[in-house]
Structures are given as C-alpha cells and as structure tokens.
Design a protein that fits this description.
- With 699 residues, the chain is an alpha/beta fold.
- The protein is built from 27 helices and 19 strands.
- An 8-stranded mixed β-sheet has the order 12-11-10-13-14-15-16-17, sandwiched between helices. Strands 1-2-3-4-6-9 form a 6-stranded mixed β-sheet, sandwiched between helices.
- The chain is globular and about 90 Å long.
- The model has no long low-confidence stretch (mean pLDDT 96).
Length: 699
C-alpha cells in the first residue's frame, strides 16, 4: 500500500511467527527526511494499527542507506507538515512495536527516528551518529534526550559534541541497537529484522520506549561530570558555539523530565539555527561538495586505475604522503637518493605510527600492516610499474625538471605523474616530459598524513582523465581535493603570502609579533604567523652566505634565533615545557631595521591588525577568482579551511568577506591605498564590481 510518493507498507508473513508490516522508505539518494517521507511515516502508524493481522512494523529503506538525516535543502526554509518530532511521537506511542532496520548510515534525523522506535537492528556494516554539530546545530529531534538514555551520559556527550560516527558493533556494545543482523544471510536485513520484531512480540517484550529510561540520571552523583567534560574538549571546540549548547541539552536530559528536556532542546536548537556560525558551517557543507565538480570534466569521466603508488623522496613531505596512501591500503614504493636518507625517512614513518599506536589510534598489528605496504629503495626503476608517481623533492625548479625527465623515461605509458610543488610552474615541469597530459600538481600540506587538503593543479596540457584521477584518488585516501590553476603559489600560498607580507610590515610599523599572533588566534586561527614560523623553523629557505640583515627574519637567523628548535626565534621557549614567551630583543631588532628603512613606528590597534592581515588575503582571493585560478569562491574557502586552519564557523575567507560587507571592505582598501602603498592596496576589480552591484563573492 503506497502511503506517499516515497513510503509504502507491505505485509510480510514469517512462518511460525506471524505477520509484520514492512514500511519501505524510498527517497534516493540517501532517504532524507523530506516532507513526503514524513507524510508517509505519519500515515504508516495508523495503517499498521488498523491491520488486525500485523503484529509489528519494521522501518526499512531501499537503496544504499537507511535514513541518512534531515533534508538539508529544507534548512532555513519554512517546514511543511507533518513535523518530524510529531512523527517520532506517533511511532513511540504506536500500540504495536516499531523496529528500525538500519543499513548504510543512520545519521542525525535518521538515528533520531530509529531511537523513537521500540527496537533497533543494524547491518554489521552500518554506521550511526549525530553529526549536526558539524553544521553548527544540535540534534533537535530528541537526539540529545534519547541518546544519553541509551548509551549513558559520558558516551553521549562525546558522540554529540564531536559528531563522529560509530560502527554497528560499537552501537551494540553501547546499547544503542538491540542486535546486529547480516544483510547477506537468512533473507537479508529485512527478513532478520522482521523475525526479531515478531519474536519480541512472542516473548512479551512489550513496547519499550527510550523516553522511559531513567538510568542515565545516575550521573547526578558525579557533580563535576559536565565541567570536567567541558575542560577536556575545550581545545578541540575553541570558538565553536554548538558544542556548548549540545552539552546544555544533555544536562537537561539529566535534570528534567523527558518532555521538558525536549522543550529545552527545541528552544536551544532555534538559537543555533539563527546563529551566524551555523550559516557558515552549512555553507561549507555545500562548498566541500561543490569543489568535487569541475564544469568541463563530466562526473562520469573514466579515471585511471591506481593500484600502486610511487613517492620520490622520503623526507617530511614524502614520508607523510606515503603514510596517507598506506593508511588507505595502497602499496607504496618510496625512492630516495641514498640509503641513509631512506632509512631516516622510514624510521620517522615508523615512529609516527608507533606514537599513534601508543595513543590508541592503531594497534601494533595495524602499524606493521601499514609498514608492510611501504617498499623503500634507492633505484628509481622501482617506479616503473607504479600507476601514480608523486614527486616530493626539494622545492627547486631545476631539480624537479630533472626528476620529471627521469620519470618520463622510467614510468610506464599512462602512469599519472604528480608534483607536490607548493609554488612552482606545473606547465614548466610537465614540458620536460614527452607526455605533459599525464602531469598534474598534487600539493599536499604538512603533515601530509594528517592535513586534509590537496590542491590539484591543472596544467595547460593536463588531460581530463588525469585531473579526474587526481581528484578521485585524493578522496580515496580521505583528503579534500580542490582544483586550482597554475600561478606562483596557486591559491592558498598566494593568499598566505599577502597575509605574511602585512604581518611583517606591521611589526616594522610598531605592532608586537605576539599581539599579531593573539589577534589572529582570537579570530579562530590555530596559530599566529610568528608562532607558526618558530614551529616550522626560521631557517627554512634561509642561506647564511647570502643573508644581509635585510629582513627581521634574516636578523634573527643570523643570531641563531631559528625557532623552537634553538629555543629562541620570535619568542623564547622554556626548555622543559616549550612554553613561548615574548622577547623584547625582537622588538629592539625590529626598531633597528625600521630605522634603517625609514619606517616610523606607532601604536597599532587590534582592528587594524586584523583588517590588514585578512583583507589583504581576501583582495588577493578576488584576483585569483577573476583570473580563473580558482573555479569558485567556495573552492578558495575549502582550501583555507582544510589547509590553513581558517575556522569553519567563519565559512572561509571569501564567505567571511561577504558577511563582513564587500562595500565596507572596498572602503577600507581605499583608505589603506591612500595611507600606505597604493599598488599593494588597490581593490581587485572583481571585488569592487561585486560590491557596487550588491552581490556576493561566495554566491
């Protein structure tokens, strides 16, 4: 019987057990809780109740997944009836038991719907979670009230504030589901779920409702549980509003009766839906998905078969890239110029893995499994049969061209050749080969085994299937790829250069390095530019023979102030704790340099620091967009969030600029052009035109 365009109920008889109603949801691609799904589920409850033969109902979905969550296309719009919470109440109050049969993913509103059922059975490959916090909102369909009752307060707090998924096995151990059923045996998940439901009826298990569970209130005997949890996650959730509001909801689940807790959840949910952070995080959700789409490369473009990966270089980048592929199960051939360098690189990789194992991220067996996928050597001929070779040698054009000339001769026809260059011209690198169509840039970010971003650089002659393959393989290893064009620094580093230029200039004009770091940290960046330089090492790229005290960085390196590794850089570091402290000597050096350059120093406020650091990058982003180096403003935002630590709750620099006000930005740039360097602060034509038209860069 069809109940709505996406929901139908079918009678299922199980010999010896009885009859159940299979309530099928069919709303591809992910069975989201669209209005017609809610309408059909609301009609299913009385339909099952009226049928005298049906003893139970099983909620099951067609396609590749259970209900994956709310229909995000409805966010920010008036919701058409029926209300999702009303549907859950109907299921919860049903006179006959409802069972959720979960496969694929049960996320957000999908898991909340399952928790409103009396029983839950999941396929062994299913994953469950409440990821709403990643959109700057909370699980507003009873998730913050029901989950603590099922899995306990400590685990519920972690799941809700992190938004992470758990496996079916974990869900069973926690009590979130009642059984794990195989979709491959005994008639599949549907049949197994129907048998479970009918046996529950035969055994007189009644209509257990999650709302009636009271054991979660036992945590009131531990009065510091919530404050302790807040302290534990403070660093991870710094700047975000939603995690704290989620904690307040779980507190309500402990302190209030169920219906009052639901009301409190609804009240707090409304505040988050109206929060600018949620608007930014929802924007980013779609931006990351848009970055996968390349207008002139169809989604069905065939990709090359990548089975073995070669990495040239076992240093920091090469080792990290190798780990990223090994973590995803790819065998990797690593080639270094000599055995000592190779051994050092492999030892670092093993040390990284063992450190992760000590923290519980891997087992020792998994460490050995990953190390077993890494095959190291010094003969480049080992790359001959690789399907993808990534060059990760020193950032020197002549060296990279020599390497690609060798790879052209060694590697098989059709192999994808990628350079990990951060700045250099991919066209010039590809031109030394006889197959520039096979050459792309794959710019990983350090540490490459952890950082999510890969800038996929399209050269003038890069083939469509080469780009499609680079994008696809990046996703296969858990990265977030974004396509960029060829220019010095591509997108991220080109914009970063402008920010660093202003930070350095501000110090010469009188701003304190630690004030600049503080302002950007308070904005939401993980670290300011000077702390970051100290961490990376001030002598990276510095040459003692050519150093001429022409920059503050050169002056610091000349005095062996090379960052954390020497205990002094822009800051001084406690040898035991590595705690950073300001050092007046740095400002003495800055004043000396400013005097030699004829720069007058003055007091500079936080607002000017922030505007000059951020708006210089935004202006460069507008130029990048106008030049076609980035396809979309949202791609620039994806790059900065995943590669440079821009806080996702601010949506990325281009989204932030739109929210800040483009007309306001143009006014500030014009003021800076009059006061400082006119060429440096000339507003990008696209920025000025978009502001004049009242438009948005980010759409």
């Amino acid at each position: 019987m069809q109940l709505s365009q996406s929901v139908a109920v079918e009678r299922r008889e199980e010999p010896g057990l009885g009859v159940a109603g299979a309530i099928w949801v069919d709303n591809p691609p992910v069975n989201a809780l669209s209005q017609h799904v809610r309408e059909g589920l609301a009609a299913a409850v009385p339909a099952v109740a009226r049928d005298p033969e049906m003893q139970a109902a099983v909620l099951v979905c067609r396609g590749r997944t259970f209900i994956a969550g709310a229909d995000i296309r409805e966010f920010g719009k008036p919701r058409l009836p029926p209300d999702t919470n009303e549907v859950r109440r109907m299921i919860e109050k049903s006179p006959k038991p409802f069972l959720a049969a979960i496969h694929g993913t049960a996320l957000g509103g999908g898991l909340e719907m399952a928790m409103a059922c009396h029983f839950r059975v999941a396929d062994r490959n299913a994953r469950l979670g409440l990821p709403e916090v990643k959109l700057g909102i909370l699980p507003g369909g009873g998730g913050t009230q029901r989950l603590p009752r099922l899995v306990g307060v400590p685990r519920a707090l972690e799941m809700i504030t992190s938004g992470e998924h758990i496996t079916a096995a974990e869900a069973l151990d926690l009590g979130l589901i009642d059984a794990v059923a195989s979709s491959e045996e005994e008639g599949g998940l549907e049949a197994g779920a129907i048998r479970f439901a009918l046996r529950a009826v035969a055994e007189g298990r009644g209509l257990p409702r999650v709302r009636d569970i009271e054991s979660h209130r036992d945590v009131r005997e531990n009065p510091t549980i919530f404050s302790d949890f807040r302290r534990r996650i403070a660093r991870r959730t710094r700047g975000f509003n939603a995690p704290e509001v989620c904690i307040q909801c779980v507190e309500a689940a402990v302190e209030l009766p169920f219906d009052e807790g639901l009301a409190r959840e609804a009240e707090l949910s409304r505040t988050l839906h109206a929060d600018p952070q949620s608007r930014a995080q929802r924007y980013y959700f779609f931006a990351e998905r848009a970055a996968r789409k390349i207008p002139d490369i169809p989604a069905d473009t065939p990709v090359r078969d990548i089975r073995r990966v070669g990495v040239l270089g076992a240093g920091t980048m090469g080792g990290g890239i190798s780990m990223a592929f090994a973590n995803a199960g790819f065998p990797v051939s690593i080639v270094e110029q000599n055995r000592d360098a190779l051994d050092r690189g492999l030892a670092t990789v093993r040390s990284n893995y063992e450190r992760s194992a000590a923290r519980g991220r891997f087992t020792i067996d998994q460490v050995e499994e990953r190390m077993g996928l890494l095959d190291g050597g010094t003969d480049q001929n080992a790359l001959a049969e690789c399907d993808l070779v990534i060059e990760a040698v020193f950032e020197d054009m002549e060296l990279k061209k020599r390497v690609f000339g060798q790879l052209d001769r060694i590697t098989r026809s059709g192999a994808l050749l990628a350079t990990n260059t951060s700045y250099l011209d991919v066209n010039e690198i590809g031109a030394v080969t006889g197959r520039p169509e096979d050459v792309v840039g794959m710019h990983f970010f350090s540490p490459a085994n952890i950082m999510k971003l890969v800038e996929v650089v399209r050269g003038e002659k890069s083939a469509a299937d080469a780009i499609a393959t680079a994008m696809s393989i990046s996703r296969a290893i858990g990265k977030v790829p974004a396509l960029v064009g060829v220019c010095h620094g591509f997108v991220g580093n080109r914009m970063l250069f402008q920010r660093r230029l202003q930070a350095d200039r501000l110090v010469l004009e009188g701003a304190l390095p630690w004030d600049i770091d503080r302002v950007l940290y308070d904005f939401g960046m993980p670290m300011g530019p000077f702390r970051m330089s100290d961490l990376a090492g001030l002598d990276v790229g510095w040459n003692a023979e050519t150093s001429s005290s022409s920059t503050l960085r050169e002056m610091l390196c000349e005095r062996d102030r090379r960052g954390q590794k020497t205990g002094r850089g822009y800051y001084v570091y406690d040898p035991a704790t590595r705690a950073a402290a300001p050092d007046p000597e740095v400002m003495d050096l800055a004043r000396d340099l400013a005097g030699r350059l004829g720069i007058e120093q003055r007091e500079i406020g936080d607002e000017e620091i922030l505007n000059r650091c951020l708006l210089s990058s935004v202006n460069e982003g507008a130029k990048i967009l106008q030049e076609g180096i980035a396809l979309r403003a949202s791609d620039i935002d994806v790059i900065w969030i995943n590669g440079y630590g821009w806080p996702v709750y601010r949506g990325g620099p281009m989204f932030w600029a739109d929210e800040f006000g483009l007309d306001r930005i143009v006014d500030i740039l014009d003021d800076y052009a009059a006061r400082f360097d006119a060429d440096q602060w000339q507003a990008a034509p696209l920025l000025r035109e978009t502001a004049a038209a009242g438009g948005r860069l980010s759409g």
